[in-house]
């Protein structure tokens, strides 16, 4: 078979038992029989091994990651420091450098490990991107059927008209059974996720078995490739209203890209990875990856509906007390149980959502939304931005979160992550900022900053903004109801706040009003302003021609 010869040539893989292009149903059963699948957190039960088909594909596949790997391992994520990309890739931020000789040694050890154990590997051929003009062929090769099924759920398949598939293909090799040895391999821990631009390889060596690694790693590749052809790749969700008015929502993890783009009155383009090209918007994926923790089925009906559909993957959600996974239906999972992870997840193919744009494509955006979840509680719920504010906030990429569920943590943790996607934006921020500026100017989109974080005080005193309020603010902006509205300026943070908004109590629009202790508000806002200023200086954004706005 062709793929086998490809993999022998690319990696030197021999004596491998391949499971090539299995159907989703086959992958489901393989996952149950072989992975840390449904039923037991420690692997399949004897009964499952004996009767894997009993469960049928009608339920979700419930998958448990390694307990240490319930999210992405940013510090263990690298690109190979090949001389030809040493200046191009933005190694200064979240993407770490892997030295070529160490990488070659590690890759060889991974291949020897697979050859020696005569491994079984699942192979899935998909595309990143649903527009054949620029879709990147993505071949997943890995030990877990769950990951192959995840890739099947999440990416476009069978796309006609893609040119030079063999020459342009990227291959991921995902090997959780390998253990990196830092002293020998040059890794930081027992796992490493490495992007090799020269050979078009993504290597996942060791336990980095959170499903999201299989989408965010190839997304990082997309962010490296797309700007070379003048396409802006963005860490944002996108949807389209009844009047063909598209919106994009940028934001770091947990700020609301997935939640807010899932809106029954608008058609979804995608929830996380979007291209803005001369043709308009295009999803890089074909599925969504939603958070499940504390899911309120009334507040998030689109996501809740998808939960009952076949062929989904649920990650790290425990069963309700007294329920066994063997019998589990989504209603018998405890969506409020964060004991395995706060970051519980659910992957569903877009076909499980009746309200999507065909081929993941849509027009140029009318509205650009920058999302932030400010746990300091000082940013206005909504601010109206001018283009230079957008550039400033885009490169700053601010959000502040609470540190999970740890007892005693009361201080919000600020994050400044350029372009709202530091770990994935492989090129320097000015590359994306320049493209965004050009496109905004050409297409005259309106821009807002939406704070989905705290109100009435910082975390500990205040409360998270109600989802219904955030949606009302967002809808008003999308419908043009805030265009030209009277505003006042928050002087410390230099943000323009509307004085009124349909369906929203005006009293909350200026966050200072919602704090009982005004001095505490001013002090916290000043602290945040200083953090913005430090970050701007530290990252050298003035050298990129970005104007400082706070
Ligand atoms: N006002 C709000 N706006 C958006 N999300 C909120 C809000 N309040 C609570 N949430 C919760 O915050 C989380 C946002 O996560 P998600 O939409 O998955 O973010 P992203 O896709 O950007 O990582 C969801 O679990 C959502 O239920
Ligand atoms: C999948 C992810 O994206 P998000 O949290 O932005 O949905 C992730 O960051 O692992
Ligand atoms: Mn998301």
From TrEMBL:
Enzyme nomenclature, EC number: 4.1.1.49
Similarity field: Belongs to the phosphoenolpyruvate carboxykinase (ATP) family.
Catalytic activity: oxaloacetate + ATP = phosphoenolpyruvate + ADP + CO2
Protein name: Phosphoenolpyruvate carboxykinase (ATP)
Organism this protein belongs to: Solimonas terrae
Record's keyword terms, sorted: ATP-binding, Cytoplasm, Decarboxylase, Gluconeogenesis, Kinase, Lyase, Manganese, Metal-binding, Nucleotide-binding, Pyruvate, Transferase
Role description: Involved in the gluconeogenesis. Catalyzes the conversion of oxaloacetate (OAA) to phosphoenolpyruvate (PEP) through direct phosphoryl transfer between the nucleoside triphosphate and OAA.
GO molecular function, one term: metal ion binding
Cleavable signal peptide: none
Binding residues for substrate: 72, 210, 216, 345
């Amino acid at each position: 078979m062709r793929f086998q010869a490809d993999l022998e040539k690319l990696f030197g893989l021999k004596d491998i038992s391949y499971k090539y292009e299995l159907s989703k149903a086959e992958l489901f059963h393989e996952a149950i029989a072989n992975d840390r699948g449904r039923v037991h957190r420690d692997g399949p039960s004897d009964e499952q091994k004996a009767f894997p088909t009993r469960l049928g594909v009608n339920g979700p596949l419930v998958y448990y990651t390694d307990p240490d790997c319930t999210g992405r391992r940013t510090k263990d994520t690298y690109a190979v420091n090949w001389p030809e990309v040493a200046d191009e890739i933005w190694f200064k931020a979240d993407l770490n450098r892997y030295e070529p000789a160490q990488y070659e040694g590690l890759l060889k050890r991974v291949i020897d490990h697979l050859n020696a154990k005569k491994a079984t590997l699942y192979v899935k051929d998909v595309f990143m991107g649903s527009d054949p003009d620029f879709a990147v062929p993505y071949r997943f090769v890995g030990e877990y059927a769950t990951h192959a099924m995840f890739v099947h759920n999440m990416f476009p398949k069978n796309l006609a008209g893609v040119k030079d598939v063999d020459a342009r293909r990227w291959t991921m090799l995902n090997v959780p059974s390998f253990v990196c040895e830092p002293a020998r391999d040059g890794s930081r821990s027992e796992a490493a996720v490495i992007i090799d631009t020269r050979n078009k390889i993504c290597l996942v060596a060791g336990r980095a078995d959170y499903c999201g690694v299989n989408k965010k790693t190839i997304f990082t590749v997309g962010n490296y490739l797309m700007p070379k052809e003048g396409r802006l790749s963005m860490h944002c969700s996108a949807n389209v209203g009844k009047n063909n008015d598209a919106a994009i929502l940028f934001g770091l993890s947990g700020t609301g890209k997935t939640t807010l783009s899932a809106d029954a009155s608008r058609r979804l383009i995608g929830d996380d990875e979007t291209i803005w090209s001369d043709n308009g918007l295009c999803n890089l994926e074909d599925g969504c990856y939603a958070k499940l923790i504390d899911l309120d089925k009334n507040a998030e009906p689109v996501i809740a509906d998808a939960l009952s559909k076949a062929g989904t993957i649920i990650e790290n959600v425990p069963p309700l007390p007294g329920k066994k996974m063997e019998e589990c239906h989504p209603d018998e999972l405890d969506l409020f149980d964060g004991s395995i992870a706060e970051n519980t997840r659910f992957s569903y193919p877009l076909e499980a959502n009746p309200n999507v744009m065909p081929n993941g494509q849509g027009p140029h955006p009318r509205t650009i939304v920058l999302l932030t979840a400010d746990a300091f509680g000082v940013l206005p719920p909504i601010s109206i931005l001018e283009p230079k504010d957008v550039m400033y906030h885009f490169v700053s990429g601010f959000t502040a979160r609470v540190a999970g569920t740890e007892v005693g943590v009361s201080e919000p943790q600020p994050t400044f992550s350029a372009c709202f996607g530091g770990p994935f934006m492989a090129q320097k921020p000015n590359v994306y900022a320049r493209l965004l500026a050009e496109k905004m100017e050409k297409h005259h989109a309106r821009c807002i900053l939406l704070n989905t974080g705290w109100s009435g005080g910082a975390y500990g005193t205040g409360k998270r903004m109600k989802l219904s309020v955030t949606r009302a603010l967002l809808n008003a902006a999308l419908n043009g109801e805030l265009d030209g509205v009277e505003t006042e300026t928050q002087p410390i943070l230099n943000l323009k706040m509307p004085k009124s908004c349909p369906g929203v109590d005006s009293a909350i629009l200026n966050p200072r009003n919602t704090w009982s202790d005004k001095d505490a508000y001013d002090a916290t806002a000043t602290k945040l302003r200083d953090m913005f200023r430090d970050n701007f200086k530290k990252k050298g954004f003035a050298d990129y021609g970005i104007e400082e706005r706070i």
